[in-house]
Write a structure and sequence with these properties.
Elements (H helix, E strand, L loop, with lengths): L2 E6 L2 E2 L6 H20 L3 E9 L3 H10 L3 H18 L6 E4 L6 H16 L3 E11 L4 E2 L5 E4 L8 E2 L16 E5 L7 E10 L5 H10 L5 H12 L5 E2 L1 E2 L16 E2 L1 H4 L2 H14 L4 H4 L4 E8 L3 H15 L6 E5 L2 E3 L14 H7 L2 H10 L7 E3 L1 H30 L11 H19 L3 H22 L1 H7 L1 H22 L4 H10 L35 H8 L19 H5 L3 E11 L6 E7 L4 E7 L6 H4 L3 E5 L5 E3 L2 E3 L2 E2 L1 E2 L4 E2 L17
């Protein structure tokens, strides 16, 4: 029997969960696993927390605590946050060496296998050393100026401004974050994983695996095209999994080497508990491994981790589902500014299912989404309360009041049977393809159909005029309620259970087979119905908004969302023809373009690669905004902006089917 192993990116224990974490990773994985289990698939959901690495060691040092204290505190908070949202795991553990020695053993097992196969190499490297603190400085112990974009405050591993991965020795004007002194460069021995040797294997896997989403495949292939570099897998720290070589006893593994191995550790712990063999999951062609992650860690899961799996002969992922970002009221979330909604704060105000619903329907997982309190209220009140909740409550209330509380014995209209069948087919197909928003939208369409059917057949009139027909109408509506409860169970577990119990069933909807949604509802007595969803009131909304600071620090207020006609008319939008295009050295996405806009040729820098190759842009007529403030990016002065749509940009081009359009023509 085929097994499906679902994993979620391990939550890093340097803080509790906010709604952005939930939307990209944990919620879709929970929905998918619940769906598989209802279909009778042998599926398990594995997750936990990631506990090593420089950020935790640094935070502990700054707070004067042991790293274990930081880990224990936030592991418990994260686990509680996930439980609040009814996100279920078959195994939820941690990678902490103090609390989980099994993970130390598994990480060292992986390393030894790779070492024996010749995929590990010793190299001398340059390392920053703080003479004041008398110790080496791994990545985040150093800050300085980014060598690529010149931004200040770049960390030793990453620049937030341009997104480049860095090494501490690359930083200009480096300083120790503990004492502020200038470090010196020293040489030391490190261990490297020979990622470059897997370049062809990874390229073949990425191109041949049709199950990988475009945002994952395209981003990973871009890295492979540029040439994979071998990967330094040790750090000069005392917090992490020890390297099992005597001459490296003062070093630990890099957190991104040991963290994904946690998936295997936790699987083994689950199997030990349930009497199974963990290798049946990780070394078997009969297992589909599905990783749910955020898009910021695509490279780790689509390149580094598969290479490690190939190196030890393990099963490669069936797919990697990478959720895009979630902003808050139009702005990037920031924990430092308090511009986030924490899970625990949300669940103090609203039932978990309201958040689950909104985060799924607000946008497809493959696109960035925005959380807005006003939109949240409107969707809950209009879609859950007025549509779904209204249909369930009015159907069951009518049965309770006028049919002695019994779902009647009667035939069901074929129209209802066909509609349920088609909805079930569509929802199933969408969930199989990880299209969660589309699947949930289909379920809501069925409840809308139910409302329209109820209204059209007017059972309040039929109860006196034609009781037999009234029974048929209400039994049909009850059958829709049953189908809704089953198909909503993966998405809204509490609400689906309420609906199921409202039909008089004594078992749990989560123990029901997925195909049961196609079967007729039983004639049985039902309890007194209660509303399924609470309405979000203005008072609720004000309490919710009070969770955010009055000023986010990035906008001047709601008036900025609107542009007057006078302001719009000041935009100089023109037709431009691309004359030259070339990649910008040092950037993953930027292309430099020279564009003829009629009275002059301007330079524009645009993030179009790898969606567009530079050579395919030459000759295209595009929409150009020419009167913007010039900005320098990667040493190139950008004087204009070209218009495109979406995260995988689609250029707005000029259709010349009616007449030839010349560069410089105004767009009005």
């Amino acid at each position: 029997m085929e097994k499906v192993l679902v994993t979620t990116a391990l939550a890093y224990t340097n803080g509790p969960l906010h709604i952005g974490h939930v939307r990209s990773t944990y919620l879709p994985a929970d929905v998918y696993t619940r769906f598989l289990k209802m279909r009778g698939v042998d599926a398990i959901h594995i997750g936990g927390t990631d506990n090593h690495g420089v950020p935790i060691a640094l935070q502990a040092e700054l707070e004067g605590k042991d790293p274990e204290e930081i880990v224990e505190k936030y592991h418990e908070m994260i686990e509680e946050d996930l439980e609040r949202l009814n996100i279920h795991f078959d195994e939820f553990s941690c990678t902490c060496r103090e609390f989980n020695p099994d993970h130390v053993d598994m990480t060292q097992w992986f390393f030894k296998r790779l070492y024996e196969e010749g995929y590990i190499e010793e190299r001398e490297v340059e390392q920053l050393y703080c003479p004041e603190c008398e110790r080496p400085l791994p990545d985040r112990y150093v800050e300085g100026v980014c060598p690529y974009c010149g931004a200040e405050g770049a960390r030793g591993d990453h620049c937030e401004a341009c997104g480049r991965y860095l090494e501490p020795v690359q930083l200009k004007e480096p300083k120790c974050v503990i004492c502020g002194s200038k470090p010196e460069v020293r040489r030391t021995m490190h261990l490297f994983f020979k990622l470059s040797e897997f370049e062809e294997d990874l390229k073949k896997w990425l191109k041949s695996n049709d199950n990988l989403p475009k945002n994952v495949r395209n981003y990973a292939i871009q890295w492979v095209r540029e040439g994979l570099k071998d990967w330094d897998i040790v750090r000069d720290l005392d917090w992490g999994v020890p390297v099992p070589l005597e001459r490296y006893k003062d070093k630990v593994f890099y957190v991104w080497f040991d963290a994904p191995i946690g998936y295997v550790t936790f699987t083994k712990q689950y199997c030990n508990r349930t009497g199974q063999n963990w290798k049946d999951y990780w070394f078997s062609e009969d297992t589909k491994i599905v990783h749910f992650i955020g898009k910021d860690i695509i490279i780790h899961h689509a390149l580094f981790w598969p290479a490690m799996l190939i190196g030890v002969g393990a099963t490669l992922p069936y797919t990697i589902v990478a959720g895009e970002y979630l902003t808050l009221e139009g702005e990037k979330m920031s924990t430092s500014r308090g511009w986030v909604v924490w899970v625990r704060d949300f669940t103090k105000l609203f039932p978990a299912d309201l958040l689950r619903y909104y985060l799924i329907v607000v946008s497809p997982l493959t696109r960035d989404a925005d959380f807005s309190w006003e939109d949240f209220r409107d969707r809950v009140n209009n879609e859950l309360v007025a549509n779904l909740g209204n249909f369930v409550y009015r159907t069951l209330s009518f049965i309770y009041r006028f049919l002695d509380g019994n779902v009647p014995e009667a035939e069901t209209d074929q129209e209802i049977v066909d509609r349920i069948k088609e909805t079930h087919r569509r929802v199933t197909k969408h969930l199989e393809k990880f299209r969660f928003r589309e699947a949930l939208t289909e379920v809501l369409r069925l409840s809308k159909f139910g409302n329209e059917y109820f209204q059209e057949h007017e059972p309040w009139k039929l109860k006196d005029e034609d009781p037999e027909r009234c029974a048929e109408v209400l039994r049909g509506c009850a059958r829709v309620v049953k189908a809704l409860a089953i198909m909503l169970a993966p998405f809204l577990p509490d609400s689906a259970e309420k609906m199921w119990q409202s039909l008089g069933y004594e078992d749990s909807v989560h123990d029901v087979d997925w195909e049961e949604a196609l079967k007729d509802v039983e004639a049985r007595e039902i309890p007194k119905p209660e509303p399924i969803f609470p309405k979000v009131t203005e008072e609720d909304l004000q309490k919710a908004k009070a969770l955010l600071p009055e000023e986010s620090g990035e906008s001047e207020g709601p008036d900025d969302e609107y542009v007057s006609l006078e302001e719009f008319n000041r935009l100089d939008l023109r037709v431009g023809e691309v004359k030259e295009a070339e990649r910008i050295e040092g950037s993953d996405r930027l292309i430099k373009l020279r564009i003829d806009v009629g009275d002059r040729t301007v330079t524009a820098v645009a993030g179009l690669y790898p969606t567009y190759e530079p050579e395919e842009l030459v000759g295209r007529k595009v929409v150009v905004l020419t009167n913007i403030q010039p900005k320098e990016m990667f040493g190139v002065r950008s004087e204009a902006m070209i218009l495109a749509v979406g995260d995988e940009p689609a250029l707005l081009t000029i259709d010349e089917s009616k007449r030839e359009v010349e560069p410089g023509e105004q767009i009005r």
